[in-house]
Batch of 2 targets.
Target 1
Amino acid sequence: MDDTLRELYQEVILDHSRHPRHFGALSGATHSGEGYNPLCGDRVKIYLHVDDAGRIADIGFEGKGCAISQASASLMSDMLTGRTVGEAEKLMGGFLHLVKGEAAGDLSPDDRERLDVMAGVSAFPMRVKCATLAWHTMKAALEGGQGSSTPAKSE
Amino acid sequence: MSALTKTIAAFDPVAARADFAILKREVYGKPLVYLDSAASAQKPRPVLEAMRAFAESEYANVHRGVHFLSATATERYEAARQTVRAFVNAQYTDEITFTKGGTEAINLVAQSHLSPHLTPGEEIVLSVMEHHSNIVPWHFLRERQGAVLKWVDVGDDGWLAAEAVAAAITPKTKLVAIAHMSNVLGTVTPLKQIVAAAHARGVPVLADGCQGAVHESVDVCDLDIDFYAITGHKLYGPTGIGALYAKRAHLKAMRPFNGGGEMIAEVTREHVSYADPPARFEAGTPPIIEAVGLAAALDYLAALDRAAVKAHELDLYTYAREAVRGFNWLRVIGDAPGKGAILSFETAGMHAHDVATILDREGVAVRAGHHCAQPLMERFGVASTTRASFALYNTRQEVDALIAGLEKARKILG
């Protein structure tokens, strides 16, 4: 297999997509958002519970999509749980740079390492949208609160 | 020699391939295997040369100047119209209107033929396998004028029964709009029977011929069809040009589409009168170079034994269809009798975009997604499919590359 393909479909990605963490709706969510990728028709719905201290206590997501979009949503849910909204926004900003092959800014070394599995997407410009769908949806959910909806952004 | 081998021998795909320079290129160090011609076909050298030669020696605007080049360009542009007429076997050349593509041709019918006389509650009959270009123009009429869309289902094999279309027609039906060939399933629709059934109820029929015209021979007189839309870029011609065939009687009654130059008879400060069809529907400077290219593409096709081309394409389809029969993780969508050379499928546990990405790295270009046919995806309970479409220049070796790529995808993702 060529290296870029191996990098894209590495074991961590396939594992996340086959066994997504945080999969399922969240009852009592304080925020939710729905994202749609008109290119492929994939949808993702994100639920989160932000506690009084402004910390993301729990995240759930639902949807069907390709390995990249599912793994990305799973990884994101894993990484954002327990962070404050401010920390989450910083991480999301870094991720969006990373998958476009840009300098990821001030990601902590630990976060950078965990997100490294998604960096291979930058070699596949047509697939960047797959990786960012859940993240854009999360962003919109945090900004818009309950029931916000976002179309997939063009990268 | 049997009849079948005789037909196949009448067309040599390897020789034809030589006309398509792009097929010699590599992607990611692998030979390009282009199986996405249903999205857009590659262009043979005679098309590119005709456009270049015309632009280099005969080009000017049409229907305007009195100078030499203007006359030459006008002649070429109108000759292209005549070529399209012959291609669809229309009776009159003025029944051919040039458009930007198939989409604009259908929008023209929606806006200029149907919209002016449509009252709320009147119905448009269409099938669930239409391309969005033969859905959204009717949705506009639903949103803006209260039209009702009547959807005709296809069978599980993708077959569209003429009886099912006929059964959806009511006294309120104003138009039947049906693809000649599905861009996803490959189903070729029984257009002649559909037209007969609709006409028996006094209802005109539009066919979206964007796929059908590529693979089937089109005879609008024999079909007795009212409107037939084609697009150039799927017919091995350039982008930016298509055509609408419409019966004279309809064209005469149709209101103008876009307003601008060339479509008028006279303009004053208080008043405007319109040119006769087809100029009435060709506002602005038309795609002149593209018209010359389209004519060259149709000439290219006409010089081939089209029945033999079709037999070749179907041979590729059948070869691929047989090869994937052994994949118990792959479900073909669209198995209608008499279908054309399009193979759409769903892969268990593997998303179409992941499959297409892996195929792409093998040099195999396929389409993955909803193919601008979301109601059809819903009908078959899938979000997307992978689609390989076969054209005159494809070969069995290319099908082998597709199959090997699918096996590889299964190995990586399965």
Target 2
Amino acid sequence: MSRRPGRAAALRRGGQQGDGRTWPSWTGAARSVARVPVLATLAVLVVALVFPRFEGGNTTVMSLATEALTYGLVTMSLNLLMGYGGQVSVGQAGFLAVGAYTTAIVATHFGGLPFIAVLALAGLVTAAVGLVLGLPAARLRGHYLAVATLGFGLAVPEIALNGGSLTGGYTGLIVPPQQLGPVMLNNPVPVYYLGLAVLLVSAAAIRSVLASPTGRRFMAVRDSQDTAPAMGINAGRTKVVLFTLSAFFCGLAGYVFALNNSIVEYSSFDFSLSLFFFAAVIVGGLGSMWGSLIGAALLVVIQQEAVSLGGFSEAILGVAVVIVLLLVPGGLASLARRTRDAVAGPRLPRRPAGPAGSGPGGLPDQRSSPAGASREG
Amino acid sequence: MTEFAQLVVSALGFGGIYALAALGLNVIFKTSNVVNFAFGAMATVVALLVWTAHTSLGLPTAAAWVLAIGGGAALGGATESGFMRRVAGTPPIVSIVMTIGLLLLVEGLAGVIWGYGPKTVPTVISGPSIAIGPVSVDRNDLFVGAFAVAVTLALNLFYQRTRLGLAVRAVAEDPEVAALMGVSRRWVLGLSWAVGVALTGVAATLAAPAVSLTPTMMDDIAVFAFAGAVLGGLGSITGALVGGFAVGILSDLIAGYVSTNLQLTVVFALIVVVLYLRPQGLFGQAAQVRQ
């Protein structure tokens, strides 16, 4: 029944490459860019588009929905880094903070700038920070990299606290409302649509990056930092590009975050937020963009209930991470995939399977169920 | 000059705490090649156990400490046998994810059990400060610093002079050859985790009087300990002591001369610079970096 020869063995063996060192097989779909389930995407998109029709009057719900979009973009950017690039970040809230503060500072001091310029600056400034962090990261692996990003996540709020009038110190910065053509972005519904647009465009951009040679280089470095150079890939430079890109998209999320909260404070970006993003990516499924969105949505729900749950909200995330790691490699996204396979039979041809590493668009799964085989005909 | 000397001496206390926590991290890293990102939460549990045993159960301080340290060792051993063993031999990211999951789990459960209200634990030693010329030394700080040095010496003696210590070093050096020589890897890893978590627990309990004891109190202290461990070299015992004190002194000097709100930033910069220029730290071996 199981396609894997024992979970422990699969973990130890390291992916389907069989080199035993580099990447666990629980990344599942991350082998290649997973195909988009078109109908499901359309359904979710329609729900997302008409959602304000029903809840538009409820500012709390709209603000939470926008927060889910923001977190979704953050977890996507983190998934790009971890799931596709194989690099760890335990400080992603730091990038979110850079994006949000950039938005607030630019919007305050250069009020006349069009919204798209502010959005671009939020992304670019954060990308520059990602580049600087990526330079040492390019030389580091595994635990060393994790320690460095952890320090980054803790340092950014403190720097913001010390920024004087530039960052507003303890009180933070009020974000002046942005003007989008005739629409003033000072009301939850337009901010929601803007957030949705930023998320969709970013998701499309991330997908096209992953499908490009650059994306292939990310995955090659992830799968083996030792063999990637043998293929002519500069692993260090690839990692710097990866960090820069991840930071860029996280900075865009910071823009939406700033508009949605209309105030940017250092205390919004504490260390636990970074941990929560990390957990959301793992629980949703490394290497699955859908999983990231699901993880982000769960995170918003759990945070919302945190007051009544107390410590349980954190413990639930911890348990979920451990369970995913030990029992559900691939996270919730893989559960959805497995359920679909169980009901409808596996889709053929599917992602490259088998230790031979048959390459993109590889052979049909040899061990597919009879139901799947009959669908083929 | 006096101010400088005073700042350096004042760092004895927190330097010792960072050193003890870094020792706990490095004892674990030495054998398992895992950075225990959950150590802050686990250490806090030990401190909270001291509080419970002392305040709720009314045990004398010494008994409370023994009980809590035993609890910490049990927690460490259970972490190894219940969780870390299942991901042994996997790429680093798997154990990073595991320890971060455990961090969330333990910190959350500590919040459920003990709540988030700050608690107080008395200092081990009280009494007036000792004056050495113009510089005054807090008795408790002196004790903490001396204790960290003593633990380092004891650990070095253990690793160098005992058969069990030899077995631990053998596992750290080459697990397969060690297994051939009849060393139980499980035993050694379980022991390392037990000692490591107990040590970080001691650090948290010593830190608790100076900060408010809550389930999240170690979130910030943890990064200083990580910095100390990285500066000294991950896996190095003497390195943890030197690194811990160096980070303590550095952050004290920053607080004294620059700003009290810049310590995390400077420590982060230190981590990045050390990892960039000399990832193996002051005392580590270059080979360990390429895990």
